[in-house]
Design goal:
elongated; 73 residues; 2 helices; mainly alpha
Length: 73
């Protein structure tokens, strides 16, 4: 099985979703007042930072098809 690269955007989006779910569970079970005013902006900023990091990470990687010396024996 071939190992795939880390998809940073999907990882952060999943963690944000998990954090929102845990916050909702805490709100329902303990009557903890979670201010929803900050949830969406924090989630959007976190996803934006993750997407920028993913773009910068993939732009640094050389393309094997255009790499000099690819195919030289």
């Amino acid at each position: 099985m071939k190992r795939h690269d880390l998809d940073l955007f999907s990882l952060v989006a999943g963690l944000v979703f998990l954090a929102v779910a845990v916050g909702h569970l805490l709100d329902v079970s303990t009557r903890l007042d979670v201010n929803g005013q900050y949830v969406v902006p924090v989630a959007l900023v976190t996803i934006g930072i993750a997407s920028l990091a993913a773009v910068l990470r993939t732009s640094d990687r050389p393309d094997p098809a255009t790499d000099e010396g690819a195919g030289d024996d």
